[in-house]
Structure formats: structure tokens, C-alpha cells
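new request in #modeling-help
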Amino acid sequence: MSPPALRFANASFGYRGIVAASADLRIESGEVVALLGSNGSGKSTLVKGALGLIDSYGGDVEWFGQPFDQLKGRSVVGYVPQRQPSTSPIPSTLEELVRTGRLGRTGMFGRYRHSDRYEVAEAIRTVGLDAQHRTPVRELSGGQQRRALVARALASQAKALVLDEPFAGVDQESQDTLAEVFRSLAGRGITLLIVLHELGPLDGVVTRAVHLADGSVIFDGDPKQRSAALVGVDGHDPHCADAVVHVPSTFGLFPR
Amino acid sequence: MIAALEFLDYDFMRRAMIAALLVGFAAPAVGIFLVQRRLALIGDGLGHVAVTGVGLGLVLDRAPLAVALITAVVGAVVLELMRARRTEIADIALAMLFYGGIAGGVVLVSRAPAGGRSLNQYLFGSITTTTNMDLIAFAVLAGVVVVVTAVVGPALFAVGDDEEFAAVNGLPVLALNLTLAVFAAFTVVIAMRVVGVLLVSALMVVPVATAQLLARSFRSTYLLGIALGAGSALAGVVASYYGDTPSGATIVLVAVGLFAITLLGGGARGLVGRIGR
């Protein structure tokens, strides 16, 4: 049996000694998982913890059966942060941006070979920006910039992508385009862990919803059942904010 | 010798031209990564710290440039570590280091046998007093800076663009940032003999600022910045010879003039066509 793409085993993460999110989850290869919840619920904390970007306060995280910092070829995991890329005063082309994603494969002293150039071009093509590959990133629209970040993560031939609110600040048309990109990636068997406020255009693409409130998982299961299960929880009814939805183990939670 | 090139008859001018060329190459090669990180003025801060090193060297009667290099490198490492930790007091601590650096230098120099006269050449630059030994030191430092920034340039660019993504991708973010900070210190120490501590950041920032007005990619900004830096430095030395003006300030005025012309030329991008990759 192959190891899961991502496994949180009683893992806790936070800042300055304070635990902000905990989880006990197993995400299989090829799943498209939406990590949902209101602002401050711990979604971004959880994914940053999984990527080793913030402090861990217990438990374990494994990607493809290995701790992230010992993962052979970290490039199997791609990260798409929430930020827009065009904040630097120095211009850089889309190709230059996406090429940085290749460093996970080549290493910082490695040569940039023909095969690397091909993979960069392929990643750009996947997100539908081939015509803009020499365009300065700051001249791209918000939606195109977000697709550029997806291409950067794909350039390392990642088997799993972590996307932190990819639709934030993106217009509806671009959201639909991004959703098509994610559908295509899912079709290629790439595991997707997507932080979202709502499913929106990904309804139908996401195969599993994990809902967080106050740093803990309160729902893990079929996206179609989420709304019904969360009535009275996490803002739906403030008088019931502490309620916890009991999730069948078949939804992927480890037995505690 | 052609009359217009008569300045090349003088040894001190030939040395000055070589020193200017070395600084003109090295400063933008480091500066572009500082500007990318919005740390354009960190060179000024390191220059202030280097003044304490100069003062210490003069008091101890040791090579002031060598002591300044050590002091600037230590200062650069401390600054980068504080920036990496993002502590609330980091900003104030930086200011203390900067002001303490120049104040410490002034006090130490006042106790040195040569006194304030020596300090002036570091504050305002004194390229025409460059010795052959200085040139060798400049060449080694500039060579290391240009070669290393070219080799690890893509990784430095990646970290400057997005530290979190670079970390997830397995790049040694802190080590790369420390490398850049140390190279900024190297460049500051070379440049302070050429343009002076008070203008030390100018050669790191202004050619890059001009280049980014014309270029459309990071690579072309890097190459054009180096060309403009070297060109400004050489033109400034020649202009200072004929105009009998301070060389450091003249170099910086040439660089700022090029920036102003490019900016005012305004539609330079549209008229001349943008420089591609």
C-alpha cells in the first residue's frame, strides 16, 4: 500500500508558543481537498505547518511517507502562496518567475538544461499563458498572475500542490479559468490541497471538504454534505459555535 | 597619446580608472538584489558601520580597509539575522547600529595620529589616492562578488521574489540572504574609497534604477545595470579630471544624470523599444 500524499498525525502548529491549528488527517494521492473555514480558523496555519514554514508544536507531518524536511526531492510538493507576485520594483518575465520553481529540481548550482527549459514551457502552457511567457509579470492581470504562480509550482513536476486562497482578489472570469486549470491537474492525478472560503467555481472539482473552526477540524467529508452538517456551526449560529460535527472514520480521520 | 586621453599618462588616473571600473561592475551586481528586496538603503547603513572599522584601523595602525571590511561583514550578518527574526525592535536596533557606527568612527578617528584628515577620504571618497595594493584588493573583492552573484543569481532572485516559496522549494533562504548581506558589505568597503561612505549606496542603486526603466526582464536589468554602473564610474572619473571636481560626487552625478535623462526621456520605452531578454 502506497503512503498517503499527506498525513497529519496529531500535528499542531502555531506562532510564538501558541497553538493555532491542529489536525489528524490523511490525504490520499489524487484527492482534491478543499480546506475551508472562516478567517482565523487556522486554514493557512495548517498548510504552512505542513510545509515547514511555521513552528510545529507536536505530532508529525509526512508527505508521501516522509517528513517534509527529509523529503527526497522536495520538488514533489508545490506551493502557491496567497500573495500576488508583482511587488518587486525590478521587472521579471513570466518565464523568469516560473523558472524559479525549477530550482527545486536543479538545485542552486545546477545547470539549466534543455529539459528544464521544456518543463518550464510545459508548466506555462498548462496554465494557458504560453503567449505571455516573455511578458513582465507586473503587466499581467491579477488572474494571470495567480496562474503564473500555479505554473511556478508546477515547474518542478510536483505530485502535490498546496494552494492558499487562489481565488483571493481574482475576478469571476479568472476564477473560472483557474478552476479549469485545477480540473485539468486533478485529471492528471495531481493531489490538490486548496485553502478556500467557499467552494465557488471548484464545486464539482473538489472531492473532499475539510472544514476548520478555531484551529480544529469540525467537518471532513463529501463537499455536498458539508452545508447540512455545519448548520449551527462556525458562524451559522453563534450560539452553537462550540459544536463539533462527528465525522465517520471513512472520511479519512485517524482514529484517536 | 591622443590629447583628449592625456589623463591616461598619469599613473594615479590609470589606477583611478581601474578602481572605478571594478566598483562600477560590482556595485550594481549586488545592488539589483537589494533593490529587489526593497533594501536599497542598506548599503548606507553598512557604510556607517564600516566607518567604525576605519577608525579602529587608524587607531590600531592596521590597514583601515581590512578592519573596515571585517566590521562591515559583522554588521551585515547582525542586520540580516535581525531582519530574519523580524523582532519588534529590529528596526530600532538597525538605527542604533547605523548611528552608533558613524559616531563610533568619528570618535575613534579623533584619537588616531592622522586625525580627521584621514576620515575625509573615506567619507567623500579619494579614488585618485588608490594604490596598487588597493587595486589588487578591489579586484579580488569585485571578482568574487560578480562571479558568485552570477552563479547563485537565480537562487538569489528566487529568494528575493518569494522567501516562503524558496524555502518550500528547498533553497537555503537564510544562507543566501547572509551571502547577499556579506557581499553588500564587500561592495560598500570597495566603494567607500571610490565615492565615499556618504554616497556608497548610489552606485548600488542608481544604475539599477535606471536599468529597470528600460528593461523588461530581470536578466536584462542586471546586465544593463552593470553596464551603466561601469559607464557612469568611468565617465565620472574623466569628468572630474577635466572639471577639477571631487571624483566620487562626480561619478554619482553622472549616474543620477543618466537616470534623470532616461526618466524625462519619458516614453523611452515606447520610443526606443523595450530591451528584451
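bot summary: The helical segments of chain A are 43-50, 94-100, 103-106, 114-126, 142-154, 172-187, 223-229.
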